[in-house]
Design goal:
The complex is a heterodimer of chains A (115) and B (491). Chain A contains four helices and no strands. With 115 residues, chain A is mainly alpha-helical. Chain A has a single domain, classed as Helix Hairpins (Orthogonal Bundle). The longest helix of chain A is centred in the C-terminal third of the chain and has 32 residues. Chain B is mostly helical and 491 residues long. The chains are: A mainly alpha (115), B mainly alpha (491).
């Protein structure tokens, strides 16, 4: 149980933090969306890691195999990925409309135009 | 036959209506169609309420798969109450929206906007109907995504920015919730909420369980606009079309609060909650901070929509305070106020929508003397405002009264003081509106009342505030029952 054995979880944490940082610190709306996507991807990885069983086979019944990975978290996360795609699509659509209405997609400049 | 499936139909019906609505031609049809669907949903919700009153908890296995493997729909007293609230608000707001939204947006968008409104209703009803934790996430995102799209339909270009910021914040909240669910699943191997509740007690000291709890509370807290996670709300509700703001202010944050109560008491249970250090005092602190901060910010705002939205932040504080007492009386008081606040906030936003429809602005500086031109709309607004302050004989009084009783039961007098201060602040920010609207000379020279289709739903909700204030017993008794069964089952 050393730290490195669970390297996948460390990757999850690193991705989560960089995603959240980009989301908060970046002024460009597209970069915010990219940060959001990285943040969500880290959670997808978390679920995939949870379902993975070391030396486990793909969950298809076969003779001679008795250790399977848990398919449920993978299926769950498929749903979450679809939700993520929809969110990104809507976010991008809004960014396009904002650019049309304001001529900028920078958060600070949007704040300066008060109306 | 239909009755036995009502539990699913109440969610499936608006979902199936979405594509139909999107394809309907003409400006009027989509709104009228959505109204019919909302009334049918109300019918189902009333039937289900009667079913719950008779049998306690209704269960339905989707596709015949037994829980915990299949997704189970589970309706108890608390869920039935929130479901009825959703159906009621939809049934009153949709006909209003059929007139006001159709007037506000371009021809080509009318079908889409009502499709989004129905999808929002579907998501909210689904959250309440399901007994599966992951299903809650999916419905939460269905409702949120349609909510973002609807907010972006506001008159001003600012609505786009408000919608984008809400999208970023809301998605972070939902993802936090997702992390919490993942940890819970890793710990217990189940997503069925009943099953989770039975497996959690032996694991209450586990750091994974506590981390999951914190992620879920933070994620849902964001969706519910719990202070200090409320920043998205004032912009979003102030910029949204008034009918959308009325519907969302009355329902979206309430359903998030329902999810919070469901997870706190129905999944984790009291013992687990007390295991997490300082959780109770943190929740109470945030509730009080929200009550005061929301009211103080509302005193400075100039836009009526913004004032009402900020007052929602304060009211979420009251409801959260009820939950955070961790007692049967507190949870019941929270539920009563949850229901009643939906009625008053919907009435206020609908009245505002009627004013905006006539004057074209919700800014205080342009609304001098509007009350003289629109006496009936103003009467409804006053009713909602009195209820929001918590004047006796209105719905708002009942929730606050039971909340004070629940607080006093625990001897926490400083919380009573905080509630009184916040109520006094609400008098101040609402009086500012009333004062301007009655001032002379008026911007509208002659009598210019809102169209009947806007006025009737508004007056209906205003009267509902009075009725619920004078006949509070059924709601209070039902909330007590919901609270007792949830706390009994959860711990």
């Amino acid at each position: 149980m050393t730290g490195l054995e669970h390297y996948n979880y460390w990757i999850v944490i690193a991705l989560m933090m960089s995603g959240l940082y980009a989301l908060i610190a970046r002024g460009n709306l597209i970069r915010k969306l990219i940060g959001l996507n990285i943040f969500q991807a880290s959670v997808f990885l978390l679920y995939i890691s949870v379902g993975f069983v070391r030396d486990g086979a793909a969950p298809i019944l076969a003779p001679g195999v008795d250790s399977y990975s848990n398919p449920l978290p993978h299926v769950l996360i498929l749903t979450a990925i679809v939700v993520g795609v929809a969110t990104t699509a809507l976010g991008l659509a809004l960014a396009v409309r904002i650019h049309g209405a304001y001529g900028t997609i920078d958060d600070d400049q949007l704040d300066r135009q008060r109306d | 036959m239909i009755l036995e499936h009502a539990q699913v139909l109440v969610v499936a019906l608006p979902l199936l209506a979405v594509p139909v609505c999107a394809l309907l031609p003409s400006r009027r049809w989509p709104g009228q169609f959505a109204t019919l669907v909302a009334w049918a949903v109300l019918g189902f919700a009333v039937l289900l309420m009667a079913g719950v009153a008779e049998q306690g908890v209704l269960r339905y296995q989707l596709g015949g798969w037994a829980p915990p493997w299949g997704i189970e729909y589970r309706l108890d007293a608390m869920a039935a109450l929130v479901q009825l609230l959703l159906a009621l608000i939809a049934a009153v707001v949709f006909p209003y929206a059929a007139r006001s939204l159709a007037d506000e947006v371009d021809d080509g968008r009318v079908g889409g906007i009502f499709a989004a409104l129905l999808l929002l209703l579907t998501g909210l009803l689904g959250i309440v109907a399901t007994g599966d934790a992951f299903n809650v996430f999916v419905f939460l995102e269905i409702s949120s995504l349609s909510g973002y799209a609807l907010i972006a339909m506001g008159r001003r270009r600012r609505a786009l920015v408000a919608s984008f910021r809400y999208l970023i914040m809301g998605t972070v909240g939902a993802t936090f919730f997702l992390i919490g669910l993942g940890l819970l699943y890793a710990l217990t191997g189940t997503l069925n909420m009943d099953d989770l509740a039975t497996r959690m007690p032996p694991l209450s000291a586990s750091p994974t369980a506590q981390t999951a709890l914190v992620f879920i509370v933070a994620g849902i807290g964001l969706k519910a606009a719990v202070f200090p996670l409320h920043q998205w709300l004032p912009d979003a509700y102030a910029e949204a079309p008034p009918a959308v703001a009325a519907f969302m202010a009355a329902t979206a944050t309430k359903v998030a609060l329902y999810v919070l109560a469901r997870f706190l008491f129905g999944v984790f249970g009291l013992e687990q909650l007390l295991e997490v250090p300082a959780l109770q005092s943190a929740l109470q602190g945030l509730a009080v901070a929200g009550m005061l901060a929301g009211s103080l910010l509302a005193m400075r705002a100039m836009d009526i929509g913004r004032i009402l939205a900020l007052s929602s932040v304060a009211q979420v504080g009251y409801i959260l305070l009820g939950f955070a007492l961790f007692s049967t009386a507190g949870l019941a008081a929270g539920l009563v106020h949850l229901f009643n606040h939906a009625l008053m906030k919907a009435a206020l936003f609908l009245a505002l929508g009627a004013i905006v429809h006539r004057v074209g602005s919700g800014d205080l500086s342009r609304l001098e003397g509007v009350a003289h031109a629109m006496p009936w709309t103003m009467a409804a607004f006053m009713m909602g405002a009195l209820s929001l302050i918590g004047v006796p004989l209105t719905a708002g009084f009942v929730g606050k009264w039971y909340l004070i009783l629940a607080v006093v039961e625990q001897g926490q007098w400083w919380l009573v003081m905080a509630m009184l201060v916040a109520s006094i602040l609400s008098v101040v920010y609402l009086w500012r509106i009333v004062e301007v609207l009655y001032r002379r000379p008026a911007v509208l020279p002659a009598r210019h009342e809102a169209p009947a289709l806007l006025l009737l739903p508004t007056l209906l909700l205003a009267v509902a505030n009075l009725v619920m204030g004078m006949h509070a017993t059924p709601l209070v008794e039902w909330s007590m029952r919901a609270s007792a069964s949830l706390l009994g089952a959860g711990s």
